[in-house]
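Regression check, nicotinamide-adenine-dinucleotide case 368:
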Amino acid sequence: MGLWFDYMENYNYENLVMCQDKSAGLKAVIAIHDTTLGPASGGCRMWPYRTESEAIEDALRLARGMTYKHAAAGVNLGGGKAVIIGDPKRDKSEALFRTLGRFIHRLGGLYLTGEDVGTTLEDMAYIRMETPYVDTLPKSWGGAGPIAPATALGVLNGMQAALKEALGTDSLQGRKVAVQGIGAVGFEIVKLLCDRGADVLVGDIDPEKVRLAQNHLPVRVVPDAAAMYELDVDVFCPCALGGILNDATVPKLRCKVVAGSANNQLKEDKHGLLLHERGILYAPDYIINAGGAIYDYDRSLPGGMNPDRAIENVKRIRKTTEQIIEIAKRESIPTYLAADRFAERRIASIAKVRALRVSRNGDSEAGP
Ligand code: NAD
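Current build output:
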């Protein structure tokens, strides 16, 4: 008793919702962190968590990351996340996702979902049958289509800002980059890196993904997943799961920059400090992996989806990363902390804007 409320209080969470339905085989958690900037938005992950606590913690941590991601990216959405406990290769069904859709609908628009690790746009279409509160959908369903390429483009821009700072040049020609996880985003990043002449090493626990990369791209494969951390490379690019920068791995790293798409790469904040002390430049995850969110959010801007505008906004991740590095230098703090301060300042300033009354009936909500 007290464990989750204490955790929620420490990090200012709003809601934690548990959803279960035996006939559909659904056990899911929806975490809502902060809705100052707008409804909580964040993808739906499906993963065979070993314990309920693991799933709840993941949902909470990922939801908080979404608050910061949206805030730093200038997106007017809050932070939320759903996780389904289950094996995406074995346990998916139409009923499972539609049942989750019913639960999301009950929240009345407080939480907007989307694809994430273990789920696809097709799964989102099932959720959409039960609720309009779905952000990422196939184009045929009125969505922006796959967002992984935009996420990858943002990561590339963030990586180049970090390289410029760490090595004095943003050129990727001949740079050694180790990509951990070559799923939806990792594969797209590898493509962009190869196009720019980088020397790319890849690793994935799924042999199918490795085969796909080997068959289509000029990459070298690192067969031993643990060896990934020890490679003598310019950039370590984590594109699998979170928590991979921890007590065991950070001391092994021999890269100059860490820049990847995975959410919550730091197991704990102290690992961001450890990277800083080791002289490894960490491009904060939620700053550089915001491309998909920025791209998808374009549908809500005046005039509706405009791919050119969306891509321009994604490329701004480079500028944002430069700003974060600048704050870190000016305030003599690690980059992860600089990113948190940058995001928190935007939330605080927009909260003030939203406190201004805009209508006579006392409704203080923002307008369009
Ligand atoms: P994905 O499921 O398509 O790919 C993840 C890949 O990582 C899989 O191929 C999996 O086999 C591999 N993997 C898992 N554990 C591994 C390990 N220990 N070592 C090596 N490989 C491992 O997911 P994705 O959509 O590509 O997302 C990747 C990461 O980026 C996630 O952390 C996700 O939250 C984050 N992210 C994704 C997006 C997006 O647009 N999809 C946006 C922002 C952040």
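Comparison notes: The first helix runs from residue 3 to 10. The mean pLDDT is 95. No diff flagged against the previous build.
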